[in-house]
Amino acid sequence: FLFIILFVGFVVWIFSFFVLFYGPDNSASRTLHWCFTALSVALLTSTGLVERDDVWIYVTEIVLFFFYMFTVSGFFFFSTIFPFAEKGRMILRKLVIFVPSNILVILILYFRLSSIYNISLGDFVTYQSLFALFHITLFIFIGGAIFNFIYAYRQAELNADRIKIKWILWGLITGSLPFL
Question: Which residue in 36, 38, 2, 30 sits closest to 16, CA to CA?
Answer without folding.
Answer: 36
